[in-house]
Each structure stands twice: as C-alpha cells, then as structure tokens.
Specification:
The protein is of the alpha+beta class. It has one domain. Helices cover 25% and strands 27% of the residues. The longest helix has 14 residues. The chain is globular, with a radius of gyration of 16 Å.
C-alpha cells in the first residue's frame, strides 16, 4: 500500500504538473537554501525503487514555514518507510530492467533547490501537494546510465514537503 501511495503522489505531480503553480514563500525557500543540506545518499528498496535519501528536516523544518493551513507530512514516514527523499527511478521503471549494479549506490548525490510549487489535485493523500523542485545533473546521469530518460516522464525532480490533510468524518 505504501508503494502505491508513493506512486500516486509521483503520478499526480507528474501527470498534472502543467497545473502546478509557483508558490511564493521566500522565507521557506531561503531557509531551505541556507540551512538544509543539498545532498543525500542514493538508496534502493527491495522492489527496485531508487531514491536519494535526504534529511527529515526537509519536512519537519519546512512545514511550519508554509503559510497554508491544514498541512501534514506526506504518508511515507514511519518504521520501514523511506521518509524524505527524491525519486531517482520508480519501482515500475526498475522492474523493466535486467539485474546489474547501480552506479553510486550508497554514495552522496548533490542537488540544488530551484523553486517551491504546489499542485492542486485530488489524491488519496490530500487535495494539495507542496514540493520543492530540485536540479541534479548527477541524478540525470544515473538515470541515463541505467538506460532511462534523464527525467521521470520528462518532469522535474522534486521533494514533496507537505500535503493538505484529508478531513475525516470525525473532524
């Protein structure tokens, strides 16, 4: 179920990125630029999901800086879940590949922050997704070395930092 949620978030952002909008929040963006690391470790899950593990501060330090109300952390935190990350290759992309070594696995991969955006689309996790667009020639190079396109479905790499909380029938 967790992998399905990640895929749905990624699909929602990719499929509707034309309707994503720039989110003007210089306090949040400047804080992230000046106080958070711009590198993470390349990791792979047992199902093939390839990602850059980044510090949890990308969510826990940035969510309070969002001016929007009713925001929550994305649904991939907790024991056995990947937490804050940048997707390098989806499990589906990796399933189509033959077994071979992943270059740079376990190594530090750098990225730069480009802009903050939000996507308004009804998903299983919320109606608004907040994310930082990142640029990383290293990630594109890794994808190319695996025989994949430089970007996932041609869209920018990103860090999902928050989602609008779904209201429950009790709230």
């Amino acid at each position: 179920m967790f992998r399905l949620l990640i895929c749905l978030i990624c699909f929602s952002i990719c499929a509707f990125s034309a309707s994503s909008t720039l989110l003007e929040n210089p306090v949040l963006f400047n804080f992230a630029q000046q106080n958070l690391p711009h590198e993470g470790i390349l990791k792979q899950e047992s199902d093939g999901f390839l990602y850059i593990k980044i510090p949890e501060e990308y969510l826990f330090d940035l969510i309070p800086l969002l001016s929007e109300k009713n925001v929550c952390i994305p649904p991939y935190f907790g024991e056995g879940l990947v937490g804050a990350h940048i997707t390098v290759a989806t499990a589906e992309e990796m399933k189509s590949m033959k077994e071979f070594a992943i270059p740079c696995l376990g190594k530090s991969i750098s990225f730069s922050l480009v802009r903050l955006e939000k996507l308004e689309a009804e998903t299983l996790v919320g109606s608004v997704v907040y994310f930082l667009i990142v640029d990383s020639p290293q990630i594109s190079k890794i994808r190319k070395s695996l025989g994949l396109s430089p970007k996932i479905n041609g869209y920018d790499f990103h860090v999902t930092i928050a989602v609008n909380c779904k209201k429950t029938s009790n709230s």
